[in-house]
Amino acid sequence: MADAAGIEGRTGGQLLADALVANGATHVFAVPGESYLDLLDGLYNQRNRIQLVTCRFEAGAVHMAEAQGKLTGRPGVAVVTRGPGACHAAIGVHVAMQDSTPLVLLVGQIPVSETDRETFQEVDYRRFFSPIAKWVTQIDDAARIPELMAHAFDVATSGRPGPVVVALSEEMQKHVVAVPDIGPSPVLPAHPAPAALPRMMEMLARAERPLAILGGSGWTAEGRAAIRDFLVGNDIPVAVSFRRQGLFDGTSPHYAGDLGVGADAGLVAKAREADLILAFGTRLGEPVSQGYTLFDLAGRQPIVQVHQDQAEIGRVHRVALGITSDLNAFAAAAAATPRIAAPRWAGWRAALRAAREKQAVAGSYEGPLNLAVALQALEEALPADTIFTTDAGNFATWPTRFMHVAEGQDFLGPTNGAMGYGVPAAIGAAITHPDRTVVCFVGDGGALMTGQELATAFHHGAAPIILVFNNGMYGTIRMYQERTYPGRVSGTALTNPDFARFIESFGGHGEVVERTEEMLPAFQRAKASGKPAIIEVRTNPEQVTNRATIAELRAQAAKR
To answer: Which helix (H) or strand (E) segment is 348 a member of?
Structure first.
């Protein structure tokens, strides 16, 4: 029945589904549960406007939603059930928090009348998620659904983007109330203060060895183009922060490499020599700052830091100039600023680029597979709009070192180092952009953490190409073992399936690569198949990193 204002009554479950539509959601990644049956029923009514993606594991569902948030700049949406479902989802929330990705996680909850009895699957989500989410709330009154859901989307995208968790009490979803839907408010982006750009340009004009570091989230295609025009127009060398390769064209003569885990020692050394750091979007966190050792914390090396959240500016490193601004608004303002006349750092920029090119040269590696050469052959064959996803592990440093993410391509990776991210992120990316080629890099360890989500890809018609780097071990941990306790291997050896046959059991395309020349034909066949595909790349376990073998690590440890 309608109220006096003519608004029809709806159940809480229907209001929740309608609130997702009102706030622009196009997909919901979910593992179903009895705690939100009424929301599922509401989503049935919105099935022509929201695609419900049925996943196999809650962590996988949230990783898919997080990948969509990275690609679109809008909150990815995941829904999980209470208790174990929410606990499984927590890793995805942590990824979204440390990666600054907009995300809304809905969690079915116990009946509010049973609170504090340690009833079946009870968790206090405000306490559970508060350290790893921007905001956590619970809806117990159906009449407040439009208000709280709109605020959840606002918080997820405002300032430094991040995850919001909304718990949904079970009986609330059944209540019928007559309230209007609430959509997003039009909010103009924050622009840099009037004095910000002139002061920054004065500092740049005095510099001799400037280095820009691009990072963070929330960049649009227009913003990336504008900041590129500013940096290239002023001949400034550019590094990207950890797993942010999609922010700048890796083939550009201004690209100096990535600062993060496994960064080139030459780039790190040059960053120490820089007399001005332009930190645009990056928090200058632990991976970028090489464990907070790269830059002087007291600010003797001048830093200009631009960030959406003023609380992040100077949080660890004292900065010479902090600029609070939407990154894209800042980029547009910077691109419109008159360029430095006759900058003095052309040789400095060229030296940084030369160092990048030198360390990207494929060396010789023992065995029939030179992974560096194989990956560079693959790079030449990839479409100009390829989306890359990566998992965490030593394998990930091979494509980072020897491949380049070009203009128009995207790169998604967990800056918190979460294993199990790559495969579901690739599936989420393929569902978000079914017309683009999606290539996932994952180790054998991460592949079996969330590899079951390939079932989701088949169920929903997504066709990512997964490169599984199989060396039969948790390679990163083995590396640290050999450095610290050489020869005393414990807990890092793995037993794996035949990954090609694994995906073939679903009806997908499987390949095995053991030689350098096999990589490109295998990829071409996988792409031509049109199916979800795994290319199992069997790597030499002795070559535990792209810079050292196990024998070399043991020899280095013996000298210490």
So the answer is: helix 346-359
